[in-house]
Amino acid sequence: MSSNRTPALSSYLPTLAGIVTLITLIAFEAVAVSTAMPVLTRELDAVREIGFGFSVFIAAQLLGVVVSGSWCDTSGTRWPVRTGIVLFGAGQLICGFAPTFHALLAGRAMAGAGAGLLVVAMYVLVADVFPSSLQPRVFSFFSAAWVVPGIVGPALAGWLAEEVSWRLVFLLVVPLAVPPSLVLLPKLRSTPSHEPGAPGALTRAQVRLRAVCGVGVTAGVLLLQWGLARIDGLVGLVALIVGVALTVLGFRPLVPAGTLLLRRGLPTVIALRGLFAGMFFGAESFIPLMLINQHGFEADQAGLVLTGGIVGWTLGGYVQGHPRLRLPRHLLFVSGAVIISSALFGLTLLTSPPTSGWLVLPLWAACAVGMGLAISSTGVLTLRYSEPGQQGRNSSALQLSDALGAALGIGVAGAAFSAWHDPVGGDTRLFTIMWLAAGGFGVFVALAGFRARPSSTGLSTTVQ
């Protein structure tokens, strides 16, 4: 009788600790470099090229995500994880010792490719190692992995960059990556190795097609972001149109059929990941600006509000993974979208004095709770809906949707702000319209959440 019991999560603690630590380091890299970038570009005489420091990492990460999905499905997680660790660590070393900004860009590209390989491989590793009943709790730890970097990362990176050396922001990550790597590498020997010709396996032609599409998506996203920032000119408009075309053409073969049409089941789950990311990150990118410009906050005070969002996201991730929660998982998407939409509508009342800007903190924390409920659930259902041998490509599709959604959300919000910003009269009306539009979009996402449940009753969406 005891053999039918679900193993305790404590039985997997070393593996869980290794995975969560690596994700924490990737998260630290994401939040800390944003703080250090102004300092290092000034020292390397490349302030005008600061945007490339971020875009080259994102582009390489997208390509790494696509490659990792195919690689995991054809060969298992062993080599994607090993290669991802090496590339990520080597990229950090190159950045830390970079004599010029162009050398630093090479390191950022290498680290981005490694991060893309690792993020997808971690999802597949969860499917290979953890029973399905424990996977929701594992994904709650994925959310928690962003807490410490989100709280400590900016302050620590800022202190290192200003008082010691910005190079340590990169170099300190390398020794910290050694212990979790030593824990995970032996475990990889016991994970499944997918044989060519197995059911669901990719053919060589399909692997090549995915690689070409990955390059197309990467180029498309770069053009799309560049075009949105210059949409008021003819060149920017052309770049935007070409970027959208390349992104869509490259994206479609890399995701389940019907994703762009919200086909019921897995396609909708993949699409929802991008819809949630676009809605949340598009709004988040302008929360500090509203607080500073409209309410007179200092930068560190505005950052504290975003820290509340990190805590809320973690809470939402914990709730969705609680073993006693019994709820159809697609309703977590609906609930998360309703919470986010309500919070965004609430922001319309806080765009300027006399209301206190500090009231944004609980609203944004609530908004992030909705994200924690939804984003962790997309990972759970993606693995649950994936056939054997397809976890890699579907996890890759999930990460692609996330990245594209965030890029579009931030880009569209930025373009709208740039077009209607009033440097003289203030932006109270503009912020009100932005929050109303984002909240209305949340209503659409909530309705789409009902389509995350498959038409077939063969796959359960109940939280376990």
Automatic annotation (TrEMBL):
Record field: transmembrane: 12-32, 52-72, 84-103, 109-126, 138-160, 166-186, 207-228, 234-254, 266-290, 302-319, 331-351, 363-383, 403-420, 432-450
UniProt KW Cell inner membrane keyword: no
Domain of life: Bacteria
Localization annotation: Cell membrane
Keywords: Membrane, Transmembrane, Transmembrane helix
Pfam families: MFS_1
Topology in membrane: Multi-pass membrane protein
Domain Major facilitator superfamily (MFS) profile: residue ranges: 15-457
Protein name (record): MFS family permease
Protein source organism: Kineosporia succinea
